[in-house]
Design goal:
Elements (H helix, E strand, L loop, with lengths): L9 H16 L2 H8 L1 H12 L4 H33 L2 H6 L5 H30 L8 H22 L6 H11 L1 H6 L11 H7 L3 H14 L5 H21 L9
Helix pairs in contact: 1-6, 3-4, 3-6, 4-6, 4-7, 4-8, 4-11, 6-7, 7-11, 7-12, 11-12
Length: 252
């Protein structure tokens, strides 16, 4: 028997987000992973390049977007998988709760944490670790938040294809490592082999790194920067929309 999905409700979406945040509040290890680990990694990177501060300036901004993306991917995929395997998602979908309400609630909850995480990492990098950027601090924070939200969207999507937390972790090298290698962090994308360059052109992390690079070298808003963040935003929304197809009621 097929039942019609209830219409989208902002109240149900906010209630779902509040429930997820209440659950995370009782999991201090997860909160520490999300908020502290990216800051520690960036600080470690700063002192690895202590004798070469210009190197830290060139890669620090890019990693300011990459680290939150990786962390949010891991936390979101594992937390969502727990709800799938425990039957929580099935029970919620049996209620008058639309898929958009449910997915929107998860995205809001993890997105709020992504904003806090990105703000902490950005403040640490610029004010304490002396990361030198030409662009606006607020634009830097914007890109960091968008990258973290992209990691959240990817985590929500891949959680549907894992049957255990171990499998969820295994998706990280499959989903994120190719992007990390081809995003232009280690070598400029225009110097790569044509096949690799073409592949990198369809990976969202490439545009996240390009956006950060624009902020390093341009003090004002550029067309290239707007192009990069538009693609990252579109990829995030597209992956979230695709994630709704992985939510299934057993009665359907």
């Amino acid at each position: 028997m097929t039942t019609a999905a209830p219409p989208f409700s902002a109240a149900r979406t906010l209630a779902t987000a509040a429930r997820v945040l209440r659950q995370l509040r009782h999991d201090p290890r997860t909160i520490a992973l999300m908020l502290i680990v990216p800051c520690v990694m960036i600080a470690l990177l700063r002192y690895v390049f202590d004798a070469r501060p210009r190197t830290f300036d060139s890669v620090g901004a890019s990693l300011l977007g990459v680290f939150p993306m990786i962390t949010m991917f891991l936390v979101t995929s594992i937390a969502t998988l727990r709800e799938r395997t425990s039957g929580t998602l099935e029970r919620l979908l049996a209620m008058p709760l639309g898929k958009a309400d449910l997915l929107g609630g998860y995205a809001l909850a993890f997105g709020a944490l992504a904003i806090v995480q990105s703000a902490l990492a950005t403040a640490l990098s610029v004010w304490l670790l002396d990361l030198d950027i030409s662009g606006s601090l607020w634009l830097l924070l914007l890109v960091a938040v968008l990258d973290a939200l992209l990691g959240t969207a990817l985590g929500l999507f891949v959680s549907a294809f894992a049957s255990s937390e171990f499998q969820a972790v295994q998706f990280m090298p499959a989903i994120l490592m190719p992007q990390l290698l081809l995003c232009g962090l280690f070598t400029p994308r225009d110097t790569m082999q044509p096949v690799l360059r073409a592949f990198s052109n369809v990976l969202p992390m490439s545009y996240a790194v390009d956006g950060m690079t624009e902020l390093l070298t341009h003090p004002t808003l550029t067309t290239a920067f707007l192009h990069d963040i538009t693609i990252v935003t579109a990829c995030t929304l597209g992956i979230l929309a695709l994630s709704t197809t992985t939510l299934r009621r057993r009665t359907e």
